[in-house]
Amino acid sequence: MKTKTIAFVILAGLLTLFTTPVYAQGVPPLPHAFYGTVEVNGSPAPVGTVVEARGEGVLAGVGNNPIVITVEGRYGSEEALKPKLIVQGEIAEGAPVTFYVNGVSTGQTTGWHSGEVTELDLVVTGEVPPPEIPETPPETPETPPETPEAPPSKPAAFSLSSLIISPNEVALGETVTISVSAVNTGEEAGNCKVTLKIDGEVEASKDITIDAGASQEVIFTISKNVAKTYSVDVNGLPGTFVVKEEAPAPPAPPALSTPATPAPTAPAKAINWPVLWGVIGAAIAVGVAVFVQARRKARGKVY
Fold it and tell me: Is residue 103 part of a domain?
C-alpha cells in the first residue's frame, strides 16, 4: 500500500466535486481518497464492478462511495482531478476502513486519515457476483431527414417521321426502298417495333432499341410483280408507289433496200462533124434563097 498526501488546495478542489453533509458541530474533516487496481480471482475486475469502503462513521452512498469501475482492473485515477473512491464522514483519525468488491469483502483494511490520497490495490477471491450492468433502453434510431425524391425519369417514347419511298414508280419486279426516321423522346432507352403494311397487310416489321434522345433510320426493301398503285403505311405514316407493266421493246429499224443497179446504156456514137456542118450549111442556103425570093416578089408588087 502506498500513501500520498496532497496539498490542501487540491483537496479543496475535490470537495467541490463531491457532496458532503454539513454538520451542526462545524466543518467536517477532509475526506480520504483511494485509487488502485482490482483483481477478482486473479483476473482484472471487469468494467461495472463496484468498489465500496465501509467502516464506523463512513458515509455510504454519498459522493464516490461506492465507485464503479470504468477501466478494466482499475478503480479511481491517480490524476488529481479525476474521480477516486472518497471515504468521508464522522470518522476518527486512524479508524479502520474495510473495502468491498461487488459486496464481497476483500479483507483488506487500512487506517483513515483526513486529507490523504492513497493508492491501494485490492484483491478478492471466492464467489464474487458479476457486476450489475443497468439495462440501457434501446436507442431509438434517429430518423434521418427526408431527402426529397428525385422526379422519376420519363419512360421511353417513340415518334416516327420522314417517310421516304424511292423510287415511287417502278416496273414489275423492281425494288422499292421505304425508310422512316424513329426518335426516342423519353429519358430511358427502350425497344420500338416498326411495322410496314402494304395495302393494309403486314409486309414486314423490325424491332429496334434506341437510347434516350437518340434517333435511328429504319429501312425496308420490297418488290411487287403485279402492276398497280400500292398504299404504304409505316406505323401510321402513309404513302404510295406505282408498279407498271414493262415497256414494249422498241420496233426494229426498217431494213435498208439495196438500190437497183441501172442498166448500162450504150455509149453515145461519135458525131460526124463534117456531115453535120454540111447539113447545117445546106439548110442555111435554102433559107437564104427563100428569103431572097420573097423579097423580089415584094418589090415587083410595089413598083
Answer: yes
Residue 290 is classified by DSSP as: H
Q: Computed from CA positions of residues 241, 244, 246, 252, in that sequence, does the dihedral angle turn out positive or negative? A: negative
**Is 33 among the domain residues?**
yes
194-212 pLDDT tens trace: 999 999 999 999 999 999 9
> What pLDDT is stored for residue 256 in this prediction?
61
Select from 225, 244, 263 the last residue of a domain.
244
Residue 232 falls inside a structural domain: yes
Q: Mean pLDDT check: name the lowest of 60-64, 94-98, 105-109.
A: 60-64
CB environment 249-278: b (16+ within 10 A), e (fewer) = eeeeeeeeeeeeeeeeeeeeeeeeeeeeee
- Tally of CB atoms within 10 A around 32: 26
Separation of alpha carbons 238 and 220, rounded Å: 15
Total structural domains within the chain: 2
Give per-residue pLDDT as tens, 219-259.
Answer: 999 999 999 999 999 999 999 999 998 755 566 666 665 66
The whole-number pLDDT of residue 267 equals 58
Task: Record the cell numbers describing residue 181, joined without a space.
Answer: 426516321
Neighbours of 155 (CB within 10 A): 10
pTM for this predicted structure: 0.39
Residues 166 and 215 in one domain: yes
What is the C-alpha separation between 64 and 18, in angstroms, rounded?
A: 7
Burial of 241 (0-12, 13-18, 19+ CB in 10 A): buried
Burial of 37 (0-12, 13-18, 19+ CB in 10 A): middle
